[in-house]
């Protein structure tokens, strides 16, 4: 995100002080995440949340630049049953939304709020942030596709042990993790990324592999029409 977009988002955050209620109203750990972070009107983004009321249909409010400063046409409310529904621990992931057109604004930082029916006002403690690009703003690669980070742990693992593969990408995406051991069938596991865009698979390492064998990892993520791929590797030692 360039400096202009960053400044717009920071001004939006500072303007939340009047509107956001004390953390005691919502769980201290409640919040929303938005992926990707920016885009043009008409494009798709995904909202995920945690720390809300369990098994509840949620109201979503999208305001640019924020609730108290949004002019006519720049405040959108999505009411149940059209909004997301939390699971039995108060989490929802990968709820799809279209970027609305701005009225009398060329570009703007925006805030995504949620209301779960228990507090009777919008929160949560940490609302989601999004930036609507103007005609001259450059669309970055990670605005259009899922950018993926892979962290294999440990980088050097003994044969017969277990390798952890951590994936970070868009919240709610499904990640297919393919691990290729030399001379062994490929192992594929799928994990759904949590509200924060994190997921982990644990892959057993075959016994009696040759020392310093290099193992390839390929991760393919998908959410709606968006996809993303990443490769990594680790080493098997005796």
Description:
The chain has 238 residues and is mainly β. It folds into two domains: 3-143, Macroglobulin (MG2) domain (Immunoglobulin-like), CATH 2.60.40.1930; 145-237, Single Sheet (S-adenosyl-L-methionine-dependent methyltransferases). Helices cover 7% and strands 45% of the residues. The protein is built from two helices and 16 strands. The strands form four sheets. A five-stranded mixed beta sheet has the order 2-8-7-4-5. A five-stranded mixed beta sheet has the order 10-16-15-12-13, with no helix packed on it.
Average residue-wise pLDDT: 89
Q: Can you identify the CATH superfamily of the largest domain? A: Macroglobulin (MG2) domain
Helix content: under 10%
Structural class by helix and strand composition: mainly beta
Short characterization:
Helices cover 7% and strands 45% of the residues. The chain is mainly beta and 238 residues long.
Protein topology:
Blueprint: H1 3-14, E1 31-35, E2 38-39, E3 44-50, E4 59-63, E5 75-78, E6 92-98, E7 108-115, E8 123-132, H2 141-144, E9 149-153, E10 156-158, E11 162-168, E12 174-180, E13 187-192, E14 198-204, E15 213-223, E16 226-237
Parallel strand pairs: 2-8, 10-16
Antiparallel strand pairs: 1-3, 3-6, 4-5, 4-7, 7-8, 9-11, 11-14, 12-13, 12-15, 15-16
């Amino acid at each position: 995100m360039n400096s202009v977009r960053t400044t717009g988002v920071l001004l939006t955050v500072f303007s939340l002080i009047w509107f956001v209620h004390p953390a005691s109203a919502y769980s201290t750990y409640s919040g929303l995440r938005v992926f990707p972070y920016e885009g043009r009107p008409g494009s798709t983004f995904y909202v995920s949340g945690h720390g809300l009321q369990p098994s509840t249909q949620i109201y979503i409010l999208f305001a640019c630049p924020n609730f108290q400063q949004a002019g006519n046409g720049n405040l959108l409310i999505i009411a149940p049953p059209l909004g997301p529904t939390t699971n039995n621990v108060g989490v929802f992931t990968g709820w799809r939304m279209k970027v609305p057109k701005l009225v009398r604004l060329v570009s703007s930082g925006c805030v995504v709020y949620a209301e779960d029916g228990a507090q009777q006002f919008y929160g949560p403690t940490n609302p989601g942030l999004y930036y609507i690009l103007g005609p001259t703003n450059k669309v970055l690669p990670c605005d259009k596709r899922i950018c993926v980070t892979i962290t294999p742990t440990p980088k050097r693992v003994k044969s017969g042990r277990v390798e952890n593969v951590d994936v970070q990408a868009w919240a709610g995406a499904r990640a297919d993790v393919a691990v290729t051991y030399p001379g062994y069938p490929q192992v594929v596991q799928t994990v759904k990324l949590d509200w924060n865009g994190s997921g982990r698979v644990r892959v057993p390492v075959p016994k009696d592999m040759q020392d310093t064998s290099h193992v390839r990892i390929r991760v393919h993520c998908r959410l709606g029409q968006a996809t993303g791929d990443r490769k990594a590797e680790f080493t098997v030692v005796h």
